[in-house]
What does this fold into?
Amino acid sequence: MSRYGRILLKLSGEVLAGDASFGIDPERVKALAAEVAEVTQTGVQIGLVVGGGNFFRGVAAAAQKMERVTADHMGMLATVINALALQDALEKAGAPTRVMTAIRMDSVAEPYIRRRAIRHLEKGRLVIFAAGTGNPFFTTDSGAALRAIEIGADLLLKATKVDGVYDKDPKKFADAVRFDKLGYDEVIARDLQVMDTAAFALCRDSDLPLRIFDMGQPGVLLRVLRGEDIGTLVQGRG
It folds into this structure.
């Protein structure tokens, strides 16, 4: 039985690429969808936000002399590609899913309307929020925090390839220490680069708990929702 009634799960675009550095790995998406669909059987209402880094990174492109606004819009469109791939896999796994976009593209997905999104969730449908906030200069992390607050989620989950928040990069430093719990102010003060500062500030000001964990372990999402102390929990002022 889950401790939470409604959650928002943030996935990076790279998660969909599997071991590749670009594109979508169908087998990885299928396995991910099966795990998320399994959780819906517990009655948890699930919103999803997926990044677009497996196709396009707006900030990186801007750094290579492309106009930042244009680059960010291209990144938003990449998230729609990923959202549609996830929707296909989730529905094949038996989970009814709706894609809602912050940029209108009515022949592809529904426009984001807060009350409609909540209604979908109440009817047992997964909702994938695509195209970020619809505005340049905001990351999909900020989009995830914003949508989580808007739909009244009990918990924001950020699935990564690292098993929590460390005091320094664990891939570069063998003595890196993982935190079990942190306060939002401490995360910002330490400049721990897990989500951008705007996303952390949104969560802090709305008192929304955030858990950061490694999605690579089979069944880990269900274990998190059952209350197991996995990854790093960020909440409160600290």
The domain at 6-234 is CATH 3.40.1160.10 (Carbamate kinase).
